[in-house]
Amino acid sequence: MSVPPRDRWIEGIASRPLFAALGITGDDVGEGYARYRVSPERAGAAEDGTVSTLAITTTADQALVAAISTLIVDGKEAMNGTAEMSITYLARATGAVIVDSHVLHKGERVSVMTVEARDEAGAMVATGRGTYSIRPLRQDAP
Hints:
Helix content is 23%, strand content 42%. It is an alpha+beta fold. The protein has a single domain (6-136), classed as Hotdog Thioesterase (Thiol Ester Dehydrase, Chain A, Roll), CATH 3.10.129.10. It is globular and about 60 Å long.
C-alpha cells in the first residue's frame, strides 16, 4: 500500500459507522504516520466533558493500523493484525482529542509504532505503543 490521497482517506473514515458513533475522524496521513481526531460531542463524553477512553483507545488502534498500512509493499506483504497495544492514560481528556501515530520500526513480520493523544491545548493525555503483524506473501517460483 502507499499513502492514499488525503481526501479519499478522510472520506473512507467518515463512512465507517463505528467511527461516526464514537466521533472519530481522520485528520492527516503520510508515510509511516496517521492523525485522527476524537470529537467530545460524539465520543460519549461524561457530563464534566471527559472524553471516553473507549473512543481514545479505538482511535489509537486505528492510528497504529493506518500508520503501518502506508508502508506495506503491495504484492509482497499483507496486513495481518494488531499483535499488541498498550496505552497509559496520563490525564483526563476534555474537549477534542488529537491522536498521532508514527512507525518506529518496520520489520519483515512485525512493526512497532508509537501513539500519542493530546487535548486541544496540546497537553498529552495518553501515550502508548503497539506492534503490528505483517504477513509476507508467497512469491510464485518461475
